[in-house]
Specification:
The chain is of the alpha+beta class. It contains 12 helices and 15 strands. Helix 3 runs antiparallel to helix 4, helix 5 crosses helix 12 and helix 7 crosses helix 12.
């Protein structure tokens, strides 16, 4: 959430970012409603002052009937105005949630097609083995029985693929710990406040990606970013303790409501998968440098696995509400002969922290909101796709990447 005063002081920039991100929020209408709120607040405060004055006059003796009548009238009028003020305040806060974060100056403008390649690594292979055909032939994945018990795009992992998933997790975990992240497991459910505080507001109503629990103020998480965002909710952190680096492991649940027309084969896009997510709470002046650090860790992981990739600076029209800037790491798919999304990392500045009320106390005693960042260490379903496409052989064997062998009993192939 953006601060209403920040919006007023940076109106042109906020309007530009809102438009470039593809949101149709009427910023002027929000400011007009906030003007109404402020005017009503002044009226309420004046009436409270008058109420206190009347109450003071009633002390020390028997009040006159006129004074008593005036006090009752003020009380009734104030009750109505305070109710209206609460309603207006809620309306303003609800409207503010539809305003996305501003974008950094180096974010490309335009839609998804305008995202800019900033780096390329590795030598792309000319051909590979389809991950779904390979895993099915080995009996390593079962979508049919997954659909029988939970519906389409749910699955069972078995034998070699289940072991590969575990090896990838252990490898990713070793990497993030090497870089100073504290390992955490997280709840798989969050409250609506945490969900909204993360800023995952769809541009349209048919894009909502979350599974909600009927009769409960809870939703299944789409990423560990959600419970990690809420970890320090309503807390004041000490400047000397920042930055804080966390690595959260969780199941992730997504309806994939906005996935029409995207690549969906096999494990690449499913409704449930496991993921190791990097997250950071930091000082505002640290966030840009830490964003590059998180990207470097993602690159370290995929270079160690020897999977060719490129890095793209995501265009404004493809950024979600919370991100001021986002990098995607896309691996080269030898099967489809194109780069496909694999990991991402975002700088959300103070957008999420303001919503969940996470602040830092500076050395001089002042308070301000922290910055939050997130990045994928290992998204296991897609990681398995990338490994199978690059390491499976046409004779039905899987060559195990060297860095994963210690987590698979030092086996060189499965």
């Amino acid at each position: 959430m953006l601060d209403i005063n920040f919006i007023r002081e940076n109106l042109a920039e906020v309007k530009k970012s809102t438009k470039e991100k593809g949101y149709k929020t009427d910023i002027d209408a929000i400011l007009k409603k906030d003007d109404e709120r402020k005017a009503l607040l002044q009226e309420v405060e004046a009436l409270r002052t008058k109420r206190n004055s009347v109450a003071a006059k009633m002390k020390g003796g028997k009040p006159s009937p006129e004074l008593i009548a005036e006090g009752k009238e003020i009380k009734l009028k104030l009750a109505d105005l305070e109710k209206n003020l609460d309603t207006l305040t809620d309306e303003v806060n609800t409207a503010l949630k539809t305003v996305p974060n501003i974008i950094f100056d180096d974010v490309p403008l335009g839609g998804e097609e305008m995202s800019k390649e900033v780096k390329k690594w590795g030598s792309p292979k000319e051909k590979g083995v389809d991950h779904l055909d390979f895993a099915t032939s080995r009996g390593w994945v079962d979508f049919e029985r997954g659909a029988k018990v939970a519906g389409a795009k749910f699955y069972y992992l078995k034998d070699g693929l289940a072991l590969l998933e575990n090896a990838l997790l252990q490898f990713g975990l070793a990497k993030v710990q090497e870089h100073g992240f504290t390992y955490m497991t997280t709840p798989d459910l969050v409250s609506s406040r945490v969900l909204e505080g993360c800023g995952f507001n769809p541009r349209t109503s048919d894009q909502s990606d979350e599974y909600y629990i009927e009769g409960e103020d809870l939703a299944l998480i789409a990423t560990a970013e959600m419970p990690l965002t809420g970890y320090h909710m309503d807390e004041i952190l000490d400047e000397k303790d920042l930055p804080l680096f966390y690595a959260g492991y969780s199941a992730c649940f997504r309806k994939e409501a906005g996935a029409y027309g995207k690549y969906t084969r096999g494990l690449f896009r499913v409704h449930q998968f496991n993921k190791l997510e990097m997250y950071c709470f930091c000082l505002p002046e640290q966030s840009k440098e830490i964003h590059e650090k998180i990207l470097a860790i993602e690159e370290d992981i995929w270079q160690s696995l020897n999977i060719p990739y490129h890095i793209i600076n995501i265009a404004a029209g493809d950024l979600g509400a919370p991100a001021a800037k986002k990098y995607d790491l896309e691996y080269w798919s030898p099967v489809n002969q194109k780069y496909q999304e694999l990991t991402s990392c975002s700088n959300c500045t103070d957008f999420q922290a303001r919503s969940v009320n996470v602040r830092v106390r500076r050395k001089d005693g002042s308070l301000e909101f922290v910055h939050t960042l997130n990045g994928t260490a290992i998204s296991l379903a897609r990681a398995m796709v990338a490994v199978l496409e690059n390491y499976a052989t046409e004779d039905g064997k899987l060559k195990v990447p060297k860095v994963l062998q210690p987590y698979l009993g030092n086996r060189e192939e499965l």
